[in-house]
Structures are given as C-alpha cells and as structure tokens.
Task: structure prediction
Amino acid sequence: MTLIIAIGNTLRRDDGAAHRVVELLGEIPGARILTCHQLMPEMAEDIAAAGEVVFVDADVEPGTARLEPLMETAGWSALGGHSVGPAEMVALASKLYGFHGEAWLCRVPGEDFGDGTGLSAVAESNARQAVGLLREYLVRQA
Result:
C-alpha cells in the first residue's frame, strides 16, 4: 500500500497546495491518503504500515512540481522542536517500527503564503502538475 500524506495549512493560501493535490487526485485503489497541517510523531506507525510513502507539501522555491526520492536522516533531532519534517518522520518510522519502504517528497511550488484561502494561479497549476506526477508514480507501483 502507498501512503500519501498531504501537509499544509489551507488558511495560508498556497501552503494548502498539498490538500488541493489530494482533492484532485481523488480515491486511488491501493493508496491511503492522510491530510494534516504539520507532521506529528504519532504518524510514524502509519508510515511503517505502508510499503511506500509520498509526502506532498507546498514549496516556497519557484519552479514546477517535482517528485523526488526522500533521503532518510540519521536521526530525529527535530522532535521536541516546532515541527518534524518528512525525512525525520521516515527515520522515526524506521527506528520504532522497522519501516524499510520507499519514501518520496512531492514539492508543489507556490508564491502566496499569506493569510487567506484559495491558491494562487501558480500553485493551482503546480497542484495539477503534481497530480499527474503522482498518478504516473502510482501506475509504476501497481
């Protein structure tokens, strides 16, 4: 099973791009979708139960949507800080629950991360491109 985790705050405009991606993606056989404002350590068990995990997150760097392998960090030093990143989550899932699957990060560039709802035209376009990347990825995994 593939776990897709959409990260972001829909009240911070383009930060909610990942939520738009999974909305457009819809239900996918053999995949489970989780949405959140930020990653939480308790999600490590969900990650470990999956064969692979794809984190979808908005990106402040300009460009187009991209899907890239996620490199696991050596530890989870961010725990106890303000937030935990995807690499730390994979490390935590590996250490606590023996996760050895693939981990990917789908970056969805945006340009407006201010207060408000709705995506900029740039983020909407990149969200649609990310859906295509994820569908291609899921076909390869099937």
User: Anything to note?
Assistant: The beta strands are 2-7, 31-36, 52-59, 66-69, 102-109.
